[in-house]
Amino acid sequence: MAQPPSSAARDRVRNTVPKMIEVTENVLFGDIWERKELSKRDRSLVTIAVLTATYRPEQLRGHLQRALDNGLTKTEISEMITHVAFYAGWPAAMSAANIAREIFEANP
């Protein structure tokens, strides 16, 4: 099993919800993200689309970085945000666009 990515956010609540963090690390990152039926790149695309559509800015930030690390391009992420705007709404997409801008600027 691959080591889950480190997360300061998870570490901050580890003592508050230890079982939830255990499941996150062992099931979500240890099983789901490692399944071969979808590439990590594709899983990242699905994940950031859902996080954009459901307005989850805290989680989106980390997953946008992971999406870049998993091979998505800034252009593909930009196109996803534009596409999702028509299905999930402009406010959610604009929030995602601002978060993406911050991540893109940190990853020239």
Furnish the topology, listing elements before pairings.
Blueprint: H1 8-13, H2 18-28, H3 40-53, H4 57-69, H5 74-88, H6 90-106
Q: What distinguishing features does this structure have?
A:
mainly alpha; AhpD-like; 6 helices; globular
Overview of the molecule:
It comes from Rhodopila globiformis. InterPro entries: 4CMD/NDH-1_regulator (IPR052512), AhpD-like (IPR029032), CMD-like (IPR003779). GO terms for molecular function: peroxiredoxin activity. This is 4-carboxymuconolactone decarboxylase. With 108 residues, the chain is mostly helical. The chain folds into two domains: 1-37, no CATH class; 39-108, AhpD-like. Helices cover 70% and strands 0% of the residues. The chain contains six helices and no strands. It has helices at residues 8-13, 18-28, 40-53, 57-69, 74-88, 90-106. Helix 3 packs antiparallel against helix 4, helix 3 (40-53) packs parallel to helix 5 and helix 5 (74-88) packs antiparallel against helix 6.
